[in-house]
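Exercise: predict the structure of this protein bound to nicotinamide-adenine-dinucleotide.
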Amino acid sequence: MNLTVSGHTCNVPSELLSWTIIVAELLPRHERRVLCHLEPCGALDVDQAMKAAKSAFGHWSKMSGMERARIMIEAAHIIESRREEIAEMEVVNNGKSITEARLDVDSGRLCIEYYAGLASTLAGQHVQLPGGSFAYTRREPLGVCVGIGAWNYPFQIAAWKSAPALACGNSMVFKPSPVTPVTAVMLAEIYAKAGAPEGLFNVVQGSQDTGSLLCHHPDVAKVSFTGSVPTGKKIMEMASRGVKPVTLELGGKSPLLIFQDSDLENAVRGALMANFLSQGQVCSNGTRVFVQKDILPEFVEEVVKRTQAIEIGDPLLESTRMGALVSKPHLEKVLSFVDQAKKEGATVLCGGELFTPSDPKLKGGYYMTPCVLGDCTDDMTCVKEEIFGPVMSVLSFETEEEVLYRANNTTMGLAAGVFTRDVRRAHRVVENLKAGSCFINNYNITPVEVPFGGFKMSGTVLHVDREPSVAGRSLFLLTSFQSCLQHYRVI
Ligand SMILES: NC(=O)c1ccc[n+]([C@@H]2O[C@H](COP(=O)([O-])OP(=O)(O)OC[C@H]3O[C@@H](n4cnc5c(N)ncnc54)[C@H](O)[C@@H]3O)[C@@H](O)[C@H]2O)c1
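Solution:
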C-alpha cells in the first residue's frame, strides 16, 4: 500500500485532542491543538501514487468479480470490527457527534458490501448478427480513477467513491479535504489489511494544488469529485483538457415543502433533520423551508422550541446532538450569513450565535447555536446561497403551483422534500420537483442501494451513469428516486 502521507500520527489518544479542529501544517492559520502533521503532496508524490495505482490496476483488473468481492467483503468486516475506533477518529477529524459518526462508518461499510455484491454481476452482451455472425460487448474498467473529497463526510465519501471504482476493477488515488485528512488513511489501511494489492487505494494529502496535479495527470482515467459548485466547475475544466470523464457531486440549496395537511409533529422533526444534521454541514439539507400559510405560526413555534432544545457540546458524548463546526473560518462564514440575513430583513427566531460549552476543554471550540430565520423572502442571500451551517430559512406559501415554481427557481437541484398526508399530492409534487433525491414525509435518508446525485448545478452523476466505472455510488443510475421510508434518526 502506498500511503503518500508524511509522518501522520493517527494513533494519538482521542482524549488529548481538541474536538473542534484538526490542525495540519496545511492550515497554519489555526492555533488549536495539533492532531497530526501532514505534508501536502507535490508532483513527485502524486506521480508515485499514480504509478503504484497503475501497477495495482494491472493485477486487480484481471481478477474476477468474485475475487475482488472477497477482498471488499473482508474490508467491510474490518470496518465493522473497528467501527468505534473509526467513528471516534471521525469525531475528532470533523467535529460531528459520535452518534452520527457511527452511522457514517456504517454507511461506508454498507456501500463497500453493496458494490462487492455487484462486482460479480457485471457482464457484457451477446449481439446476434446476420448470417450466423455475432458480436459481443465487454465491460471494461477505466483504469486509475481519482477521487477528491469534501470535509463533511470524510470516511463515508472515501468509501462511497472507492467502492464502485474498485468493484469494477479500477484502482484509485484519493485526496481527502485538507481540513479532515485522517480517516481516509484508515480506509487505505483497511483495504491493505483485507488483501488489496499494493497501491490499489492510495491517499495523497493536500489542498487545491495537489488536487490540480491529480486532475492534470496524464495517467488518470476518470475524476470523481465531491465538493462545492465553484471547485466542481474547475475540476470539470481541468479534466476536459485531457478529455477525462468526471462525476461531480456538488452543493445544494434544497427546498422542503410543508403542506397544511401534514402531520405537524413529523414535519417539524423532518425540518430539524433537514437542517441540523452534522451541524447543518450536509449537501442535501433542505434549508429553504416553505410552510403553508395557515400552519406557519404553529410550525414556527414548535420548530423553534425543538431547535432550542438541541444539546450542543462534546461530540464524543452520547447525549450530544450537535458538535462543533469544522473550522474557525467556516464558523465565521456561517455567522456572517446570519448577519447578512438580519440586514436584509429576516428575523432571527432563535440561535445564530457563538456558543461556549461549559466543559473547559471545549472552550475556544467552533460551536454555534442552531438558527431559525423567519420572515424570509426568495431574494434574500440566506435563501439563495448555500450556507452549509445550522441555519434554517422559513418561508410561507399559499398554493401548490406557487410553491413548486419557487422551489424550482434555483440553479441547484440536489434534493427536495414534501410533507403532506395527501398521497396523490405527494407524488405529483415530487414528480415536478427538479431535484435528484426527493423525500416524502422524511428527509436525509440515504440508503446505499438507492442513487444519490444532483440535477442542474448540483452535479453530473445522474446523467452519466451505466458504465462500469467510478461514479459516486450510483453505478447503474438513470433516474431520481422517491423515498417513502418513515423512520429517521431523531435529533
Ligand atoms: N453532492 C454531494 O454528494 C456532496 C457531498 C458532500 C459535500 N458536498 C458539497 O461540498 C461542499 C463543501 O465541501 P468543501 O468545502 O470541502 O468543498 P471544496 O470545493 O472547497 O473542496 C472539495 C475538495 O476539492 C479540493 N479542491 C479545492 N480546490 C481545488 C482545485 N482547484 N483543484 C482540485 N481540487 C480542489 C479540496 O482540497 C477538497 O478536497 C459543499 O458545497 C457541499 O454541498 C456535496
